[in-house]
Every structure is written in C-alpha cells, then in structure tokens.
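name: query_chain
kind: protein
chains: 1
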Amino acid sequence: MNLNQKKEKNLKTNILNKQQRHWEHKFSKRSEMFGTSPSLAAQQAVKIFKKKKFTNILELGAGQGRDTIFFAQNGFNLQVLDYSKSGLNSIIKKAKTLNLSDQISVKYHDIRKSIPFKDATFDCCFSHMLYCMAFTAKELDLLSNNINKVLKFGGLNIYTVRHTGDADYGKGIHRGENLYETGGFIVHFFSLEKIKQYSAGYKVINIEKFEEGPFPRKLFQVTLKKIFK
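structure:
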C-alpha cells in the first residue's frame, strides 16, 4: 500500500467515525426521529420470542427506543447498547414514565470494539438497521462473531439491513465497499451474498424482504441461529 492509498484509507475511516457525532446531533434535535410505533421487524421478532419462550434479549443500536419499549411492554427483559447518549437518555426517560425501568438496562458503548457481556448470556440479539450503519467489512465480521459469543447455544440473531434493491443504493457519495452517503447518513447496503458472508457460526433460518417508511426503505429481515457452542 503506497502513501496515497494509506491516506485514502485513513480519510474514509475518519469519515465513518464522524457518523457517531452525526447521529448524536440528529437524536438531540428530534425527540422521535423514527416515530413511536415499533418497527415491523420488532413486531415480527416478538412473535418469535414468545414462541421460543425467550426472556433475555440484547438490543443493539436501539436509537430512541421505539422497539425497546415495545419489547418491554410484551414482557421481555432487555440489555441495550448504543453509542448515542441522547438516544439512551430518551429510552431511560420513556422506561421511567411507563414503569418499565426494571426490564430495561442501557449502556453507552461503541459495539465496533466489543460487546461487554459474558459468553452465552442472551436468548436473542435484535438489531434494526444496525448492520447497515457505517461499518467496514472487518467491523461487520467482528460484530457478527461477538454477537455469536454472547448468545446461548441455539439462540437467535435477528437483524435487518437495507439491501441492494433499495432506491438509495449506488447514489450519493461512495464511501468504499457498499457504503453510500446521502443526506449526511452513511448506509452499508447488503446483498444475499453479504448476509451469508457474515453468517459463520450460525444457521440461516430465514431471510425475508420487507419495506418500511414512506420512501420506502427496502430491507431484509435476517434470522440466524447459533449452532456452535
């Protein structure tokens, strides 16, 4: 790698790292950025949780908590990780108002580095559009492996991602790999091949297409089952 290539790599990394500040700013300015209703993905996940009799859920990238609150209202206990303090403060406030504080624990944490829980702690990990944030391929691989570690044997990793059929794919500023920036937000778009790429240690149970929002965003909902202890 020559000097110019190193500079380009570092520049892209610096741009990706600025997304944390961007999300913090947006959440601090808009108290209900994605509305108050639970996502379609969370509604589907609750059906699975109840069928499996899960009780202990890890939610990553919870934002302002629209799904977190929905899960708690359906009787589940949650550990929540996010790198937006504004988002987490919103969750804490909502949980207190709705008397759900005993079911929801939040932690400010950058999951690109680690997931700070013991192995085999959770029945399921849920994340809505977390995987398609500004992660590099290396960071996605680490994320998938770290989730696998904290799941119990047979536990599920349920996540959603915007896919390459989305109208925003290939538009805006290309930030490397399948990363594109529009309106200040960097999105990592997924193909079916990319989902399989990050499924080591899991069995792929289901990949379902769905749409969300007025745009609409086009997404995959992915359900993976941990198959290795």
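note: The chain has seven helices and ten strands.
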